[in-house]
Automatic annotation (TrEMBL):
Residues 17-190 form the Diphosphomevalonate decarboxylase-like N-terminal domain. This is Diphosphomevalonate decarboxylase. One of its GO terms (molecular function) is ATP binding. Gene3D superfamilies: 3.30.230.10, GHMP kinase, C-terminal domain. Its EC number is 4.1.1.33. It comes from Morus notabilis. The lineage of its organism: Eukaryota, Viridiplantae, Streptophyta, Embryophyta, Tracheophyta.
Amino acid sequence: MASESQNWVLVVTARTPTNIAVIKYWGKRDEKLILPVNDSISVTLDPDHLCTTTTVAVSPSFDQDRMWLNGKEISLSGGRFQSCLREIRSRASDVEDKEKGIKISKEDWEKLHVHIASYNNFPTAAGLASSAAGFACFVFSLAKLMNVNEDQSKLSAIARQGSGSACRSLFGGFVKWIMGKDKNGSDSLAVQLADEEHWDDLVILVAVVSSRQKETSSTSGMRESVETSLLLQHRAKEVVPKRILQMEEAIKNRDFASFAQLTCADSNQIISIVEKWNRSEGTPQVAYTFDAGPNAVLIARNRKVAALLLQRLLFYFPPNSDADLNSYIHGDKSILQDAG
Ligand code: ADP
Ligand code: DP6
Ligand code: CO
């Protein structure tokens, strides 16, 4: 290290949005590398709403790697954090900050320790994909700090080893996680299907009915399904491959009727308000989907429908009621105010 003093600190901050799967990843073929049993497709939310902000710092005065999540120190000893740290460190390259007189060589990164502070602006482990935004941001911010020269897809394969859904948050817009074939996972990565501008009409509402930590984590729910469900293999081999192709087509053509039908079909819970409404209108207005938890994600075909939907939600779940519904709007904040 070219700097004489031990007092310097180099800091990077990054922000990463969460993503919500419309064709879901559910089941692993390799638990350690996090390799899925099927492809999945998601929409990345707007970073102004549901996101993780992570600050990573390096200094010769740090004597171990440490992390704080939402202000509380957590252990980095778990295999997932260690895999991501190892993969990023092994790709680190020289960093020079002339102003501060800091020069860090590739070899120095093996000896230096990092401190990581991460904050989710939405409920953690409550079924709104905090692990997706969290691990994507973890990998992205460390890669920036350590000057890792890899494209986003390569980084996504590292984030995948933190949490499967995290690989998709490295891109905006519509994203596909290709399951891959390799045993070592090098081809199990995310690619962008369409960017943020492609289908600008869509409005995503996230109805937070509970901020409580879900009882079953995605990891253990998935493990249980793989071990006990005969249907899961059928879903992975027969159902999802067809749905993926149909969903790619629906996104390409901005075909909301197909998009809504496929999204709802792939989600394992039913919202009667949405279903009744879609039936009464004759043509779908809203799609709903749930991750592993009680909180609903609703996708409206346009801003007008989103405003109506929000009114209905506020009617069924008035603010300050037991349901404690907070609505986050992706795309246009003003609708929330108009409808309120
Ligand atoms: P969720 O539905 O929120 O994704 P999961 O059970 O899949 O729930 O994952 C929750 C776990 O993700 C947390 O216990 C924590 O280990 C990890 N996680 C959440 N937020 C972050 C973050 N900002 N940085 C790193 N890891 C995070
Ligand atoms: C229902 O990515 O949270 O949200 O890989 O074990 O961390 P791990 O699980 P996670 O599972 C997400 C499941 C899902 C569907 C999806 O996002 O595709
Ligand atoms: Co998760």
